[in-house]
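To: structure subgroup
Subject: Chain for Friday's discussion

All,

I'm putting the inputs and outputs inline so they're searchable in the archive.
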Amino acid sequence: MPPQPRTPKKSHTIQNYFTPLPTPSKTHHLRDGFDGEDENRADDLRLPASPWAPRSGVIYARTKIGEIKSGPGRITFTGRVANFRDVEKNPKQATAAKVLLRMTLTDETGAIDIKFWLTRPMMIRQVAKLGALATVHTTFVAALSTKEMESSAASYMVSISDTDAAANVEFLEDSDENYADYKSDESKGGELMPLKVFVESGSDVDDARLLVCIKWKGSRKFSEIPNAISGELELTDRSVPRKDGVGTAEKRDIGVFDDSMEATLTLWGSMTTSANSWEISKTILLLTAPCIRLWRNDVQLSLGPASLVGIDPIHRDAQWLRSYAQKLLRKPDLCQPFPYTEFDWSVGLFGDVRLKYTFADIDTYARNIEEFEHQVPGNQCIGYLNVVIVEINIATLHRRNMLLVGTCCGFPVFTNSSSAVCKKCDAPLPSIQPNPNILGRIADETGTIAGSNLIMSERAWLSFLGRSGQELAENTSSEVLRYFDDYFLFARMTLAFGWDPEVGKIAVWDVLAS
């Protein structure tokens, strides 16, 4: 039998162990302009197919945050975000959480920490902000350790993942029905502290509470931190370097103030977007335990892990501060007519009961009108104020041609003459009176007030100056005016006055010698 031909041996290479890839076609297909990373990012922004809901037959007990205890149990509660920050994660698995959102929720009874693990972080970041309303469903509450409580305003903590079927965090939209729900009121917490007192000594007080209004909003300084989804740097022309030198962080400065002084509130990270909805001279912030830093002549406030922020709290002082901020936006009306008919001067000043007030008494009444409505007749303060002149500007205003003032076309017109014309319509001024800034500032033992916040009657000017405003401006020499400044400075006098919330200023009926 003839020998069979040998079959050549097949050489084994590494290509034999892998499935060959198909050769790419040279045909160019039209694309929509998005690459794979954009599609992944769109997946994170896409809402779930259906909103989260408890399983059928499962009941969650509704409770207040202050009544929560540690341990297992199905509970649900609602509060407002008083502090939050997000921590980027670099998971090895594609389905793992990419961001940890740490929040502090508060209501009128207490605070609790929330750890929300996010696999779709972009979707939540659009709604997570200070003051946002959130409802939490959970099956277990953990107690914070002693060390953790030192850097937190809460005693308990809840950890939830957005993939958990039995627990969830749902952010709610504000509406007219729930606008005032779960906000801090004046019956809870400690006493409010003026910003100036906090700067001077109150920073050593635990859980110090400040009530401030928004004065200005700075622009956001964006970051260069690697994106948790794409891994690319978000490059911008303005950024703030981190202290550890790794990357940069987002920062936004917010100007805040009260009736004592101004300061700068610095927001970091994703918290910067919370200020987008804040309105200047309208939004009120209740800051609890803020961090403070003095830099040159600027007072810088920031939010630490234990700090809390309340947006537009239900508080009478918040209403007063908002109205105070609105008044600062308006130009002072130096020619406000004297309210002769608003007060019963004969009964208040010359009746059987004559009251002596201080600036502190008027301030207390103005902030708490409802409490004194049955004690003060007609909701008005009518009586006497004993004050000292600490600033007088007669000679200065005369030199600037501003000793008298009138108004026309909505603008004040200053002059030293009894006859002047409007600079807008060239019509003669209907009335001219002494400039209220003649009295630069007056004070008593409890407070001080600027002369522009007084409405002086003709009788009061005549009693104070000894002559009319026109005679003072036209028939008085510069030497006599300088003598008036020296004579009235630190002089004590008694003001017969009236104050009404509708008038808004102290109306001085007469000036009496002390």
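Points worth raising on Friday:
The longest strand covers residues 71-88.
Residues 119 and 309 are 27 Å apart (CA to CA).

D.
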